[in-house]
Design brief:
The chain is 39% helix and 21% strand. With 480 residues, it is of the alpha+beta class. It folds into 3 domains: 5-292, no CATH class; 298-412, no CATH class; 420-478, Orthogonal Bundle (Arc Repressor Mutant, subunit A), CATH 1.10.10.410. The strands form 4 sheets. Strands 2-6-7-10-1-11-12-13-14 form a 9-stranded mixed sheet. Strands 5-4-15 form a 3-stranded antiparallel sheet, with no helix packed on it. It has a two-stranded antiparallel ribbon with strand order 3-16. A hairpin with a 2-residue loop joins strand 6 and strand 7. Helix 5 crosses helix 6, helix 12 (420-433) packs across helix 15 (466-478) and helix 14 (449-459) packs across helix 15 (466-478). It is elongated. The structure holds adenosine-5'-diphosphate, magnesium ion and zinc ion. Adenosine-5'-diphosphate is lined by residues 8-12, 156-159, 198-200, 209-210, 212, 214. Magnesium ion binds at residues 12, 196, 214.
């Protein structure tokens, strides 16, 4: 990257809302149904049909508006955006033009160790279009209208983003926020979240924006990162060779790792927006807007920062814990038990629990593991009732059965032995069997102590108290 230039990025994110039915008709809103089965005259745009707005869509969009600190317009309307494309049977998309439901917000995201505030211009509601299926065998294209009328929110950012990393952090935060609010299943691979990437560059220090290029077909957040890096470099190359960046829409090809021109950029006036005469103005009572705000959960970035400051966890660990709402709840329940330290809970969740979740590709709520049992088990380790190794044995049981860790310790005889009388024989045996290590220790290589204590632990089948064993080993050698 040429350091004489600064990157400027603005993002438009489309998210499908997980309502039961579509935005203007009673058709089911579901992914993966048999083609053209979730359709009716309204979402197929047949003449004479009338759309009726789904109230749930408005509520979900307002929730997102609150989460992104927007002003909510209680009086708003819907507009027709006119264009022709075979996936759009009405030849217009019902969207919002000059009065979006939410506007003038911002989102704080964590980039490295810094909080970066990115302005949110607007969030509006609109309907999705159908899907075209290009069929090579048939030598043609088929249209599936199931997706027509699936509710979307479009979240438009200000051009406040200054790097591919910031863009990625913004997108990740939008993604977790959608999941926290429970308003979208946010599955990238099913296309329920999509983004358009606007990129320009300008000489460092310049206060004017350069000409922007909009990139479509960016199918994942990591692709967005690659697309921004590629496009910024392309523009810098053009400018530094005395050329001019054209305002255009390009298509990102993630396989080839480059963008190609799709069309020169269209302007809003090309769409001939006008208020939809079938829908017109709608009013959301202020009381309802306020109620939705009061019910907002603590959001991922706020959670991450709280975990860092309150529990002294690292940013990386805090972020991982806050990423999934269910994991965060589980973590907080464990810590809330007051039985064990937040740091140990975090280590167990991010280590052993995550390993199981990855292996089984499941969610933490799918496990029989309870916060009570995990925190009890950790507290047994902290109190030195059991060793860390014995903790793993207990963990293997409580992952799949709601069983009191104290019972397991009793049944399996896992309690740690701290009684020096009981450990003396073990120490004696280990020292006798490891003469060389003992001599090494005597000659000043004191780090062999770890090895000797390890042998004692092994001999005690993990039940010896390692710190007591260490003291005993040192004393025994010194007395020899
Ligand atoms: P359109 O509907 O034509 O895509 P919008 O006005 O909705 O246009 O803006 C689209 C996005 O472009 C916004 O996210 C905005 O932040 C971004 N943007 C505007 N100007 C620039 C620029 N010079 N460089 C990068 N992004 C920009
Ligand atoms: Mg756009
Ligand atoms: Zn329908």
């Amino acid at each position: 990257m040429n350091s004489n230039y600064e990157i400027v990025v603005g993002l438009e994110v489309h998210a499908e809302l997980s309502t039961k039915t579509k935005i203007f008709c009673g058709c089911k809103n579901e992914f993966g149904a048999e083609v053209n089965t979730n359709v009716c005259p309204v979402c197929m745009g047949l003449p004479g049909t009338l759309p009726v707005l789904n109230e749930q869509v408005v509520e979900y969009a307002i929730k997102m508006g609150h989460a992104l600190n927007c002003h909510i317009n209680s009086v708003t309307k819907q507009d027709r955006k006119n264009y022709f494309y075979p996936d759009l049977p009405k030849s217009y998309q019902i969207s919002q033009f000059d009065i979006p439901l939410c506007e003038n917000g911002y989102l704080d995201v964590l980039v490295g160790d810094e909080v970066k505030r990115i302005g949110v211009t607007r969030i509006h509601i609109e309907e999705d279009a159908g899907k075209l299926i290009h069929d090579a065998d048939l030598g043609g294209t088929l249209a599936d209208y199931n997706r027509c009328g699936v509710p979307l929110i479009e979240i438009v950012s200000e051009p406040d983003i200054r790097s591919a990393d910031e863009a990625k952090a913004y997108l990740d935060t939008i993604h977790t926020t959608l999941l926290y609010l429970g308003i979208s299943d946010a599955k990238m691979q099913e296309g329920s979240v999509r983004c358009d990437v606007n990129v320009s560059v300008r000489p460092k220090g310049s206060t004017e924006f350069g000409t922007r290029v909009e990139m479509k077909n960016v199918n994942s957040f990591s692709a967005a990162h690659r697309a921004i890096t590629y496009e910024a470099n392309r523009q810098i190359d053009v400018l530094s060779h005395g050329g001019k960046v054209e305002q255009e829409t390009r298509k990102w090809d993630d396989v080839k790792g480059r963008s190609v021109v799709l069309r020169s950029k269209e302007d809003a006036q090309d769409y001939r927006y006008f208020p939809d005469p079938d829908l017109l103005t709608f009013v959301v009572p202020q009381e309802k807007i306020d109620r939705l705000k009061a019910r907002l959960p603590e959001l991922p970035v706020a959670k991450t920062m709280r975990y860092m400051s309150r529990y002294g966890l690292s940013k990386a660990d805090s972020e991982l814990l806050a990423l999934d709402k269910n994991v965060a709840e589980f973590f907080e329940k464990c810590v809330g038990s007051g039985k064990c330290s937040a740091k140990n809970v975090s280590n167990w969740i991010l280590g052993d629990v995550f390993k199981i979740l990855n292996e089984r590709r499941c969610s933490i709520n799918d496990l029989a593991l309870t916060a009570e049992n995990l925190s009890e088990m950790i507290s047994l380790i902290e109190k030195k009732t059991i060793s860390n190794a014995a903790g793993k044995t207990v963990f293997e049981v409580i992952v799949d059965a709601d069983k009191d860790p104290n019972e397991i310790v009793k049944e399996k005889g896992l309690a740690q032995v701290s009684d020096t009388g009981a450990l003396a024989a073990i120490v004696e045996k280990v020292l006798a069997n490891n003469e060389k290590a003992v001599n090494d220790y005597k000659s000043g290589k004191t780090n062999v102590i770890g090895f000797l204590v390890g042998q004692c632990m092994k001999e005690s089948r993990g039940q010896g108290n390692p710190s007591i064993l260490k003291e005993m080993v040192v004393a025994a050698i010194d007395n020899k």
